[in-house]
Every structure is written in C-alpha cells, then in structure tokens.
Known about the structure:
- By secondary structure, chain A is α/β, with parallel strands linked by helices.
- Chain A has ten helices and ten strands.
- Chain A has one domain (3-95, 159-255): 3-Layer(aba) Sandwich (Rossmann fold).
- Chain A has a six-stranded mixed beta sheet, sandwiched between helices.
- Chain B is mainly α.
Amino acid sequence: MSTILKVDDLVKNFGGLTAVSDVSMTLNDDELVALIGPNGAGKTTLFNLLTGVITPSSGAISFRGPKGTVTLNGKKAYQIANLGLARTFQNIRLFKDLTVLDNVLVAMTSQYKEGLLSTLFRLPSYYKKEAKIAKEATELLAIFDLQESVDVLAKNLPYGIQRRLEIVRALAMKPQILFLDEPAAGMNPEETADLTRLIKKVQREFHITVVLIEHDMSLVMNLAERIYVLDHGAMLAQGTPTEIKQNPAVIKAYLGEEVS
Amino acid sequence: MTILKANFKYNVSWLIIMVAGFYLMNTLMLMGIIDSFIENMLVVIGINIILATGLNLVIGFAGQFSLGHAGFMAIGAYATAIITTNSATAGGFYTSIVVGVIIAIIAAIIVGVPTLRLRGDYLAIATMGAAEIIRIIINNLQITNGPSGMFNIPQFATWPVVYIMVCVTTILIANFVRSRAGRAIKSVREDEIAAESAGINTTNWKLAAFVFGAATAAIAGSLDASYLQTIAPTNFGIMESISILIIVVLGGVGSLTGSVVAAVVLGILDTALQNFGTLRMVIYAAALILIMIFKPTGLLGSHELSFKHLFSGTKRKGRVRS
C-alpha cells in the first residue's frame, strides 16, 4: 500500500472563522476511508478543498497520479477532476434535465475528442466516436443496473437511484480517488443497505480509493478500513473502526459525554 | 456501418424537408401566390430564425443570459455594407459574410472572457453594455458613415440565399448541440459546480457557445444589411436584442425547433396585423402575454422535432423506467 494523496497542515479561513485548521491526512491505494464528525465539523469543506471547489488558505495537497506526484494547490476544480479525483455531493447535483446516459457522457468529456469539423458536418468519424463512447457509458451503467433507464431524464429518477447515478457519473471519470459526501443521506434502511453493497462493489471492481463522509454509523463501521474524525475543523483522531469506537475523545466530541 | 446507415435515414429526411420547402416556396412564388410582400415576410422570418437559434444556443443550451445579440448582428451588417459597397460582386458579398463572422468571433472573445464570469442579471447587463459599446463605436466611425447609417447597399441576399443560410446555420447549431460539445455546454447550464467536478472547463465551454452564437448573429446581420439595403446604428439597439429574446422565450428556451416555430408565428402575426394600424402593437403584445400565461415554457418547451423519435415511435420526455 502506497500513499496516493497526502494532505499537510491544510487551513481554510472564512473571514474570522477557521473552518478547517491544520488538517493532515494520507490516503493509500485501494482503501476505504471514512471521514466522520459532528455537524459543522468541516467535513464537506475539507472535501471542497481537496477537489478544488474552494481554495485553501494555506497547506499543501499532493497527489500521486499516473504522471508522477503533482501538487493540487492552485489547480482548478476541473483540472483536479481530470487528474483522477471524482466526487459526489451532499445535496445531489445531477444534470437534472439531461438523460441518464448524457449525465455519464458529460463526465467522459475529457476522455475523447470530436473534432469541430466532424461535429459540425457530421462526418463518419463523429458517428463512430459517439457510438463507441455511448457503448462504453452504457456498459458502465449496466454494472449498476441502470441500463434500463438510459433515456430517462435524471430528475425523473427515484431518490435512491439518483444517488446511485451520481456515483456512476463520478466513476465514469475513471478516478483514482472517489469522494462520497453523505451518500446515505435521506435514505431508508433498505436503500442504505443497497448503498453499502454498491460501495463494496465499487471497491471490488474498480480498485480505487474511496473516501466517505457519513453520519450513519452502521454503514461507516461496516465499510471503513480507517476512520478520520474531524471536530471543529481539526483532526481529532484517526484509526481503525475498533480504535475509534473506543477513543474517549471521539466519544466525547461526536457521541456526547456519558451521563453519570 | 450500421450506425451510419441508421443516421443516414434521419439526415436524408431532413434534407428532403429542406429541399421540398425550397421548391414549395419557389413554385408558389412563380405562381404568384407569394407576392413580394409575403416574400419580404419570409426573408424577415429567415433572418429571425438565424438570430433566435443562435441566441437560444447561448441562453437555452449554455444557460448564459445574453442581451447583446444585436451587437454581433451589427458587426455582420456593417461588414457586408462596407465591403459590398466597395466591391459589388457576389464574391464580395460572401467575403463580407466571412469577414463579419471573423470580427464577430474576435469581439465575442473580447466581450466574453470578462463577462461570462458573471451570472444571471449581471451577465445580461454586461452583455447589453457590450452591445451598446459596439453600436456606439459604429456610430462614431467614418467608415460606417456615423449615425446616418449606410444606404444603397447592393442586394445579394435574395430569398434563396437567405433560405440556404437558414438551413446551414440551423444544421450547424443543431449538430453542435447534439455532440460532446453540446453535452458539455448543457452540463454548465444545469449545474456549474457539478460540471467543474465532472472535469468540464466551464469557462471555455461557455465561451465556445457564446462565440458560436455571435458568429451566426453576424451572418444574420450580413443578410439583413444586404436584403434591406439600408442600415443605421439605431437598428441594432437594445430593442433588437429584446425582440430576438422574445422569439427564443416564446418558442421555448432550449428548443431549436421552438425558435424556428416562434420566428414563423411572430413573423406571420406581425404581417397579418399590418392592417390594424396602431392596434397592431396592442394585439401583438396581448398575443405574447396570452402565450406566456398558457404556455409559460414557450410554445415547445424544450422539445425538439426529431426523426429518430418519430421513426422509432418513442417519446423521450417524461418516461420513467427504473
């Protein structure tokens, strides 16, 4: 296991508020890490920093990509995404008025080229490219049982399926790290169980690093190999699920103090 | 090869419609059913189709609310006016279209890079200002004959030329929208943050749509100048931008077919009301209000006429299978 992402002393200030302070963490190849913490602990802010949606006030993020180690500081969100860091959002952000297939195809945009001329004049190469890329996307959708819904508009899908599609869209980018921001939010126990299976499947079949923000402890303890705990923007603890369950600081901050 | 064959059928269907439309109009003209009055209406409709589909690309597909379309139209119009006045040949006319398009593209890049960072109302105001700057520059130049405008421009944009240009620009825009580029610009419209996170360079794609829209507006401007033979800076003010916007909204934001239908409906309505004198604008406005009340998403919403769906007998919208 080697390090794929290394975060050093990351800080984010919003005016006088320090949302993330001196956070350091490392992610290894092909592991499933959970990021937990009470509401407002800075989990989503940390995700936004790592994926370039917002820029850090200080600190360094380095990523070992296919072309060697690069720093992610100062890179735009789309550049970071194209390097291989894909994500989903806490409040689903699908392209609602596009079909399921188009949602996935958008995520593949940087993986193929259609020349301007062959696009505008519909040259044979355009049709070949379109057919090839659509086939690839449909195959990916089929892995997640979405092949029946390719022509459905994303907004017309049931909630649980929308979550699933968002994960598929992220996977379509062929990422090396997948960030899932509260994937089980708003799901009933049955849907959560489905999701747990889905995440396991993603890990098994794609061999990528998955980082997960989640409040559902059954899901976290069931899935995560390692857990990071954030509280008030600072990294409170890290360790295996068993270690975290017994860590008094975590119990105090996250689950509340025991009433004696 | 099967992919090519399947699409061949749809493409041939479109071609047949376009050629048939041309011959139908031509025959009606030869028979005298379409007089010069109606021909004038057809040309105006054609130019409005080019303008509306181009603006719909920017507003409806890329989701960038631009109110500066008339500015780019002015660039095309003046390029044609100046060049064909000096060289009154068909070659000069087509060169002038190309020159107009190139200048419009450059202007769109200069305008777009700073303004496309803005959103919604702010972008609308900024593009409106940019169009006004273009108009004022034209107003103050010697070569454009200042505020009095240019007249006696040689007429090369006859009805067949306009018809062919309408077909060509519509095909190009439709092809652009249904491609990798089209999906990318639609994703920007749907959710900019999600698009960025999906690896889309949103700034570049917004600019691409904006520049493409501006280029088609310049073509429309060239045709307009050459057909009407008289242009003045006042023709390209904010009211022109708004009347193009009305066509887009009325037809359906995000529907090219809608823009074509709305341009035709409004063109006919406008002509039919010519006899009503001052009542004309009242009825025109009332018709607009009624359509917006009963069909707030525009005549066609975001639906498109598609042979693929006609032939396979399926309807894409609203079908839920999961």
